[in-house]
Design brief:
By secondary structure, the protein is an alpha+beta fold. The chain is built from 11 helices and 8 strands. The protein has a domain of 154 residues. 55% of the residues lie in helices and 11% in strands. An 8-stranded antiparallel sheet has the order 4-3-2-1-5-6-7-8. A hairpin with an 8-residue loop joins strand 1 and strand 2. Helix 7 crosses helix 8 and helix 7 packs antiparallel against helix 10. The N terminus is likely disordered.
């Protein structure tokens, strides 16, 4: 019995030491992941809040066609080629049209140009890239590798923290003694957010190492990603179909899914349309249609409901990580969990610092 107790104490000392120094080494990155993640959970909502004068409109009957929207944009910005049309899910939101100068916001009921958001990264763009890759952009993508490994460190910290907490099982916070307060805060927040933080960390690591995990998903499910055909050569004298017709074709190609984004192709490309089913709450949509711009033929169509099993796992993993899977409730939970890891990092550093000062006294 004495040997077992000593072995247990020895194991706890090793885990405590690893837990402490790995947390100190990765603390800044953990805080960055937590803060940026809490913001990214509500990225579309925050973007509309930051640009509310451009984003919101008063519904007035029938929305204009995309051709009419395009005509209004071309009149306001002659000579600039439209690259993308983006249709919102709510009738109270404006349409957006991508031009070389940036995103143009258009009232879909009047064709009024509400304003332009210049191209390049804005605040949310910096937050997004900081979360993904520390703003480090290069072919080797070192920032993404660092943040992915930080995710693995977080998983270790969560599991080792649970092991260290288990003998005490304390979930109350005593505001009296300073060290006790930070100790209780660290333990209580950690235990209460443990499941959600593990979900965030595991799904995040899966995304971070997607070059390995995605092929593994296809292998485990015995499925293969669907290959997208290239656009056929343009027939001599052929005239392209309009964007509204392409959207109608895409709507028919995947019944039940609503097209919301269309890329306007150049002369040698095809229309690329994104759609979403009612249950697809992620802003990017997970259903895709490719339409030949000259013949109107559907070259590719894949809905999130019927995609290969490996693709569906990738889709669900991303939706869980971002909190989009159940909409606002799950986004709120994931945002709070991201903030919880920040509290964990700060309280852990405060405890270490207080103990360091006490030992020196």
């Amino acid at each position: 019995m004495i040997l077992i107790v000593r072995e247990g104490c020895f194991m706890r000392r090793i885990l405590y030491t690893l837990h402490l120094y790995m947390a100190l080494a990765a603390g800044l990155f953990v805080v960055l992941l937590g803060l940026t993640g809490s913001i990214m959970a509500f990225e579309p909502e925050i973007d509309r809040l930051l640009h509310w004068k451009l984003s919101y409109v008063n519904p007035r009957g029938r929305a204009l066609s995309l051709a009419e929207i395009g005509a209004a944009v071309n009149k306001a910005f002659p000579g600039e080629r439209i690259g993308v049309y983006l249709l919102p899910a709510s009738p109270r939101l404006s349409y957006t049209v991508a031009l070389p100068r940036g995103l143009v916001y258009v009232n879909p009921y009047t064709g009024e140009i509400l304003g332009v958001q210049p191209g390049g990264m804005d605040f949310l763009g910096y937050v997004h890239q900081l979360h993904l890759r520390l703003l480090l952009r290069s072919r080797s993508d070192p920032g993404k590798k660092i943040m992915s490994w930080v995710g693995i460190v977080i998983i270790f910290l969560l599991l080792s923290g649970l092991y260290l907490w288990w003998p005490l099982k304390r979930v109350t916070i005593h505001p009296g003694v300073q060290f006790r307060f930070w100790f209780d805060l660290h333990n209580t927040i950690g235990v209460c957010s443990l499941v959600f933080l593990l979900i965030l960390a595991v799904t995040g690591v899966t995304i971070g190492f997607e070059q390995t995990t995605v092929p593994l998903f296809y292998k485990l499910t015995g499925s293969q990603p669907t290959k997208r055909p290239s656009a056929p050569p343009m027939a001599p004298g052929a005239k392209p179909i309009g964007v509204d017709e392409a959207m109608a074709i895409a709507r028919a190609a995947i019944p039940g899914a609503v097209p919301f984004l269309i890329n306007v192709p150049d002369a040698k490309e095809a229309y690329q349309i994104r759609s979403h089913f009612p249950e697809d709450l992620t802003p990017g949509g997970r259903s895709f249609v490719t339409v030949d711009q000259y013949t109107g033929k559907v070259l590719f169509a894949e809905g999130s409901r019927t995609a290969p099993a490996g693709s569906r796992i990738v889709i669900q993993n991303r939706a869980i990580h971002t909190g989009d899977i159940f909409g606002i409730p799950s986004k709120t939970v994931m945002s709070l969990a991201s903030l919880a890891i920040v509290v964990q990092a700060i309280s852990g550093v405060v405890m270490w610092w207080n103990r360091l000062r006490k030992n020196k006294a």
